[in-house]
Design a protein that fits this description.
The chain has 367 residues and is mainly alpha-helical. The protein is globular, with a radius of gyration of 24 Å. The protein is 73% helix and 1% strand. 34% of the residues are buried. Helix 12 packs antiparallel against helix 13. The C terminus is likely disordered.
Length: 367
């Protein structure tokens, strides 16, 4: 469901622009949808982080972890009941059992702010194993973003599509993203099991495996050589298909393939990122978001100037060669040195309870 917008968004945007004959309506549609999403999520989405609510049996600590519905309903309770709830929630933040004297909420807020490590996501970027993991995830995301950004001029200038048809042209890539998200979970499970078999390790499905011993980097990168090789060749083919203005079905099929491959690579290394920082998954996810968005912005900024200078064929050829060579080097280092580097920087002991996915829920949010 998280990838549903990949299919629906460009289609609705193209439909709005086509029917209104004004591209600005696509942005007004985004404003309306974003406002509705904020209202629904803020009202009903409860806190799910394990370090805040455990398995769901712990009450969130602090009003900032409440839903808007919780805050709204408090206003309609009796003053005595409201006082009792506020004391219980605040006392939990202090580790006090049962209602006692009214706590100092201002002091509680200051203590919470003091615990926030603003620099943690940025420090993660400079670890050797993390830098390579972030590059693999960010480059896959940025490469696919080049397709997203270049679609309108490609299908308008080469194939003379209107706005609605341009929106429909995003569907193959979106379908590849959805298929990749489903298939990659199975692939990661298989890679984990094969790696465990190779080293004679018996998977503990109850308490989880000790990742200080298990070479999780080796398991994650196992099939990425094949995915990266196909992807790199596909970028070259995609660029020259556009340069030679071949039948429109060719770039559309290649977009489906790239959506599939880029999603597999992105999810794999997002999972690895949380695997190697199990005690701080939120900072790991934040560093992943920062690097992939920054790299995507750089790629898109360079897209049109390079296309104007060397043409679409050579631009996507350069993209394929760069991602293939740098990515291949990163995979080699992660497979041979990743576990050693992780142990050297003293990652706290950790376990994983599922073969293909990390134990923290944050791994799914990072995707």
């Amino acid at each position: 469901m998280s990838n549903f917008g990949v299919n629906l968004g460009p289609l609705l945007g193209g439909l709005l622009a086509f029917r209104s004959d004004d591209f600005e309506w696509a942005f007004w549609g985004l404003v309306a949808f974003g406002s509705l999403s904020l209202l629904v999520l803020g009202t009903f989405l409860k806190e799910t982080a394990r370090n805040v609510v455990g398995n769901g049996d712990q009450c969130p600590k602090g009003w900032w972890a409440w839903t808007w519905w919780d805050i709204f309903t408090l206003r309609f309770k009796s003053p005595a009941r409201t006082e009792h709830i506020l004391r219980e929630k605040a006392n939990q933040d202090h580790g006090i059992k049962g209602p006692t004297e009214r706590p100092d909420l201002a002091a509680s807020w200051k203590r919470t702010i003091a615990k926030i490590e603003v620099g943690s996501p940025f420090r993660i970027v400079f670890y050797k194993d993390t830098a390579l993991t972030l590059w693999m995830a960010a480059s896959a995301y940025a490469n696919y973003y080049c397709i997203q950004a270049s679609n309108p001029p490609i299908y308008k200038d080469i194939y003379h599509f209107n706005e609605l048809e341009i929106g429909l042209a995003y569907l193959p890539g979106g379908a590849g993203v959805v298929l990749g998200a489903y298939a990659n979970g199975k692939l990661m499970d298989r890679n984990y099991a094969l790696t465990a078999k190779e080293i004679g390790h018996e998977i503990d499905r109850v308490t989880g495996d000790d990742l200080d011993i298990f070479p999780i980097e080796r398991a994650r990168v196992r099939s990425c050589w094949i995915l990266l090789s196909i992807s790199s060749c596909g970028w070259v083919g995609y660029g020259w298909a556009l340069e030679k203005s071949v039948h429109v079905s060719v770039p559309l099929i290649l977009q489906l393939m790239h959506g599939f491959l880029c999603t597999c690579l992105l999810q794999t290394f997002n999972a690895l990122l949380v695997d190697i920082f199990p005690k701080n998954p939120s900072a790991a996810a934040t560093s992943g978001n920062i690097t992939r968005c920054a790299l995507s912005a750089l790629y898109v900024a360079l897209l049109q100037p390079l296309v104007n200078a060397i043409g679409r064929g050579w631009y996507f050829t350069l993209l394929g060669i760069t991602s293939g060579l740098v990515g291949g080097f990163a995979l080699f280092l992660l497979r041979t040195k990743g576990h050693q580097w992780r142990k050297q920087r003293g990652t706290p002991p950790s376990t994983t309870t599922v073969q293909g996915t990390p134990s923290s829920d944050t791994g799914s949010k990072a995707n």
